[in-house]
Design goal:
Keywords: Signal. This protein is of the alpha/beta class. It has eleven helices and 14 strands. The protein folds into two domains: 154 residues, Response regulator (Rossmann fold, 3-Layer(aba) Sandwich); 147 residues, Rossmann fold (3-Layer(aba) Sandwich), CATH 3.40.50.
Length: 350
């Protein structure tokens, strides 16, 4: 059975086809309304061949590597795309600004980006649009910043709400929890925290003891968790939507001899995390689809052809229960691997 088919079955079985019931729908409803706005493609219409510039805020993260391969795969399916130029800012906001400026000097026709910091790149993105280069944010949360023409986005609020509700169910609605979020200040971190805090309003017996930022980094999350374990003699639950950070946290709990005391939320489809779920039969996953990179190219090509697009196309997350994880985990693949439909020739090297 294909990955897509398995995900659709999981989606339907979880009752998520029509969308979950949010604790407070205001933020998500507003985001959906903004995302549904139509962007006029006429100002960006041009003849090919096209040159795509990809500004990665970081390439040390395995999710980004897989999403980038989705960009390359989709680009290969369009004969009018002649080149894909990729830069890596290595988590440096100033370098990402310089990278985008350099890509513009190379006369790119389309810019796809993953930000280190949304605010830092806001001005250079606006300059790109003013030069007639459409900009597509790929894989983060939705943004309606003036410099972002459209988004291939994963609803971080929706994801965070799904993860938080599963955690509340698993800890019985009471206890002390800690949260591990991605890069501070990014849409992902802000929306995930907002979703968690919204859900927690329904659970007065749950204490959010600490909010931390692990930068989607396994080693950093582990180090932070080691400090949390020294600060708190008892931790009942962990809210961590990112599998890379979840597995780092689990390692810290295990090495401290405290793994049995804690319940983990779902992570994502990071293979190292799914291996852990398969072994321990808890947590599960809420997917963070790497095919957002592919959707970004699709949106960008439509704009270059003068077609209208929506301001944001959502790439939906779905829940995978622990007892279904064996259908998704790759036991023989590295931890830094992601479930995907990439053809073999586009899979990253193991």
């Amino acid at each position: 059975m294909s990955l897509t088919r398995r995900l659709l079955i999981t989606f339907a079985a979880a009752g998520l086809v029509a969308g979950p019931a949010f604790a407070d729908q205001a933020a998500e409803v507003k985001q959906r309304e903004l995302a549904a706005q139509i962007v006029n493609g006429a100002p960006f219409k041009k003849d090919g061949p096209y040159k795509i510039g990809v500004s990665a805020g970081y390439l040390s993260n395995s999710w980004v590597v897989f999403a980038l391969q989705h960009v390359r795969w989709e680009a290969s399916r369009h004969s009018e795309i002649e080149d894909v130029l990729v830069t890596d800012a290595a988590f440096n906001p100033a370098k990402q600004v310089a990278d985008i400026e350099d890509l513009l000097r190379q006369d790119i026709d389309l810019l796809i980006y993953w930000p280190v910091d949304d605010t830092a790149v806001a001005d250079v993105l606006k300059r790109a649009v003013e030069q007639g280069v459409p900009t597509v944010q790929a894989g983060g949360g939705f943004t309606d910043a003036p410099g972002t023409v459209t988004n291939a986005y994963i609803s971080q609020w929706n994801l965070g709400e799904m993860v938080a509700r599963r955690l509340m169910d698993d800890i019985g609605g009471e206890g002390r929890i800690v949260a591990m979020l991605p890069i501070a200040g990014t849409t992902a971190a802000v929306d995930q925290l907002d979703a968690l805090e919204t859900v927690l309003k329904e659970y007065p017996k749950v204490e959010l003891a600490s909010v931390e930022y692990g930068d989607w980094n396994r080693a950093k999350a582990k180090q932070i968790t080691e400090n949390l374990l020294q600060r708190f003699p008892k931790i009942d639950g962990v809210f961590s939507p990112a599998g890379q950070m979840s597995i780092g946290m689990a390692e810290a709990f295990d090495e401290a001899g405290r793994l049995s005391e804690v319940t983990f939320s779902p992570g994502d489809e990071y293979n190292g995390w799914m291996k852990w779920v398969a072994k321990h039969k808890q947590g599960g996953a809420v997917t963070f689809p790497t095919r957002a990179g592919q959707v970004a190219v699709e949106l960008g090509v439509k704009l270059l052809k003068g077609e209208d697009v929506v301001r944001g196309e959502a790439v939906p997350s779905v829940y995978i229960a622990p007892d279904a994880i064996d259908d998704y985990v790759s036991p023989d693949a590295p931890d830094d691997w992601w479930a995907s439909q990439l053809p073999a020739e586009f899979l990253p090297e193991q």
